[in-house]
Amino acid sequence: MQQGITDLLNSAQTAQNNAAAAAPLEGAQVFGVTLIGATPENLHKLLLTLGFIIAAWVITKLLRFVLGLFIGSRGGTRFQFWAKQGVSLVVAAILVLSVLSVWFDNPARLAGVLGLIGAGVAFALQRVITAVAGYFVILRGRTFNVGDRIVMGGVRGDVLDLSFMQTRIMEMGQSPKEQGDAPSMWIRSRQFTGRIVTVTNDKIFDEPVYNYTREFPYMWDEINLPVKYGDDASTVENILLDAARRNALTHERIGDEEVKRLEDEFGIPVGEIDPRVYWRMTDNWLELTVRFLLPDHGGRGIKDAMSREILAGLNKAKIEIASGTYAIVEFPPVKVELATQQG
Q1: In angstroms, how far is CA 18 from the centroid of its own chain?
Q2: CB proximity list for 166: less than 8 A, separation 6 or greater
Q3: What is the pTM of this model?
Q4: pLDDT for 1-55, tens place per residue?
Q5: What are the b/e assignments for 245-263, b being 16+ CB within 10 Å?
Q6: d(CA 238, CA 235)
Q7: What is the mean pLDDT of residues 176-202?
Q8: What whole-number distance in Å separates Cα of residue 59 and Cα of residue 73?
Q9: DSSP for residue 53
Q10: Is 39 in contact with 25 (CB distance < 8 Å)?
Q11: Dihedral angle at the C-alpha atoms of 192, 198, 204, 208, nearest 10 degrees?
């Protein structure tokens, strides 16, 4: 009997010790009020989290500094772009794993908390999550790279930087045929306006992204010239072709290897690369259009040189550019007499 009572007391003492060990730590008290969660253990975890964040920031700066030493003055290159993205992704992944390991040592508890947090974050930060998803789509889908000339979210220009949520673009102007597009520009050609525009990455899910550079760093352009009926249109055609061949790209300029790549990858025959003139009859004049190939940058200078040579050739051949004329007719004055009513 005595042995049974002793065993019962020992069991009760053991249960009490286990309950005390499993009981949560008491929180700090302020004016007699206990603050839930303000325990020494949580304070220790908070300090560790801050330490990990500071360490990640220092490591990121250090790695970028080391990369800068190897890259040198080649700022804005694709190697620098991918090196920066690699450092950001690796450090971010290590930081997230470190913080999770500090705060959630129980996998079951971690799964439950992550589920609740994920549901709340997904609802409150939909655009942010979409922007981050767009970042990975841009990298994985090879949509564009740093230095590429693109149109994204209605913004035209060269990509300066890509982050998890935003893309920075050095804005450029619009050619005359694009002036009706929004937003309108005061620069009437594809040259920089001086503005740096920030676009969120989620725009790639809403609108198409136009790339002027990637895999096909060329653009076709045209110059239209109206010629009066009766003038020597063949001479005008030769003037247009000579100016285009001297200034625009031809298959000789871009090289046989590049021509073969364009033919194999895009199915473009050599005849499409060289300048060509097209004729079109209108009610007022004969319109000659010279179509030529330009690089993705520097097209305005090439078109300027072509325009000067074309005008010089037309003046030498004594051929005038056709234009619409309007006759202003003056009508004789009309005398209006007002009838007076007599009563």
Answers
A1: 59
A2: 131, 198, 199, 200, 201
A3: 0.59
A4: 445 445 544 554 554 455 444 444 455 555 555 555 566 776 777 788 888 888 8
A5: bebbbbbeebeeeebeebe
A6: 5
A7: 76
A8: 22
A9: H
A10: yes
A11: -30
